[in-house]
Each structure stands twice: as C-alpha cells, then as structure tokens.
Design a protein that fits this description.
With 118 residues, the chain is an all-beta fold. The protein has no helices and 11 strands. The strands form 2 sheets. Strands 2, 4, 5, 6, 9, 10 and 11 form a 7-stranded mixed sheet that branches. The radius of gyration is 13 Å and the shape is globular.
Length: 118
C-alpha cells in the first residue's frame, strides 16, 4: 500500500482548502485513514481519522467543527476539507493508514505543506 498526499498550498486566514490522499493498493475495511500534521518545531499531531469500512470519523479538538474528513472507497481516496483556516493550522499534513487516531500507523504518505497567512 502506498499513500500520496496532495493539494496543499498558501491561503489566507479564514480561507478553505482541501488536501487529498490517494491510496495505491487495498486498505482493509477494519483499518482507518488518518491525517496528521507537523508544524515547525512541534511534534506531529493527529488531526482527523475515518474508518475505511464504516466511514465513522474522529477529530482532534483543535479542528473539530472546521475540518471534515471523507473517503471514497471506489476511487480509493480520502479528503480533508479545511474551513476557517487559522495561522496555527500551518503545518505539513500527512496521510497515514492503520488504527484510527493513534500515532503508530502502518503506512505513511509524504507530506503536503499547508501555509495559512494572517
């Protein structure tokens, strides 16, 4: 399984942005697709996750109500829709697959940079 993140960019505070993760290979229905982020000088943190089979979701408190994670099993993709972006959302965003909302993931994609200017 390989994961590829895309869609990052430079936006202004309050804007919206979507990052996408393309999955090459087959994810088990029991697995999850998660988004993590890492800001400069900070540890990587969990952002959002979705169970690949059931589609149930979980969010970190810092993004709840602003970000939405979704997945398209037919297209083997997962998106993170980010609204009301803040400068503190600036980070490299990574998609990963494994158990939901845990730092130990089986597969990791390369990151995509999201920069939010104030």
């Amino acid at each position: 399984v390989q994961l590829q993140a895309s869609g990052g960019g430079l936006v202004q505070a309050g804007d919206s942005l979507r990052v996408s993760c393309t999955v090459s290979g087959r994810l088990l229905s029991s697995s999850a697709l998660n988004w993590f982020r890492q800001a400069p000088g900070k540890e990587r943190e969990f952002v959002a996750g979705i169970r690949w089979g059931y589609g149930t979701t979980i969010y970190s408190d810092s993004v709840k109500g602003r970000f939405t994670i979704s997945r398209d099993k037919a297209r083997n993709t997962a998106d993170l829709h980010m609204n009301s972006l803040k400068p503190e959302d600036t980070a490299v965003y990574y998609c990963a697959s494994g158990e939901i909302a845990t730092p130990r993931q089986r597969y990791w994609g390369q990151g995509t940079q999201v920069t939010v200017s104030s």
